[in-house]
């Protein structure tokens, strides 16, 4: 039996690769996908998720729509300038139309039903704002006993990307992030920008993916606007697949090297709003800790993603 996995997502180009990674891995039991506002509005993220599962030949996977806004304060900005207005570099319409209807239940209800019905512990991989996960844990604490761990793409210990201090997913709903990372007691792995930026995938890697077959070529075709954005940030032709790095850890525990720290999330209204602060003192105080992914075998990780997405495993 492989990893029982539910992805909570806001596709998003890097989300597309993350969904593909899970959907195409034969050692993953992909129980469901839930959607959240984030890179683009909820209606768009939800359609993108359904189309991506259809592309991967996985209409068996249920999809439910979740929160369309943060818990408390309005989302200040989206990420269309990075991912394109449709979230997928203007190419969402080229994906196959979904054949499975959207679930009539909301995301939290689907999460509860899938977790309770699972025949063992379930891993959650939230790769967008943490609103749905915060709502789940607050309203249904009984499911926590069946959550193996929550592998989160978010945060940055030394820098942000939406602001100098804050990474996009955490910044989009800091109150939800604080609930999950600070106030709860479910085991969490945080995969921050500090590592995901180091795991950049260059044009040669993308070329190998495109040459692997129609599915790989389609995934590569979704990267045009994303590639243009990261060409400026990275200084070379490449992209950063933040969310796929986190899902790799969800699938293969230990592929990322972690260190354990207490985490705080800044929910104030100054320049640090949405910042994730790790207490890295030698003898921090007691309380809840989070495993923070800070290293990996970079070439090994890139090979892992390529073999899974190319279907050569």
TrEMBL record:
Q: Which Gene3D superfamilies match?
A: Ribonucleoside hydrolase-like
Q: GO cellular-component terms in the record?
A: cytosol
Using the record's annotation, list all stretches that form the Inosine/uridine-preferring nucleoside hydrolase domain: 5-301
- Coiled-coil stretches are none
Molecular function terms in GO for this entry? purine nucleosidase activity
UniProt KW keywords: Glycosidase, Hydrolase
- What is the species listed in this Swiss-Prot or TrEMBL entry? Amycolatopsis xylanica
What does UniProt list as this organism's lineage? Bacteria, Bacillati, Actinomycetota, Actinomycetes, Pseudonocardiales
Q: Can you tell which superkingdom this protein's organism belongs to?
A: Bacteria
* Identification of the protein by name: Pyrimidine-specific ribonucleoside hydrolase
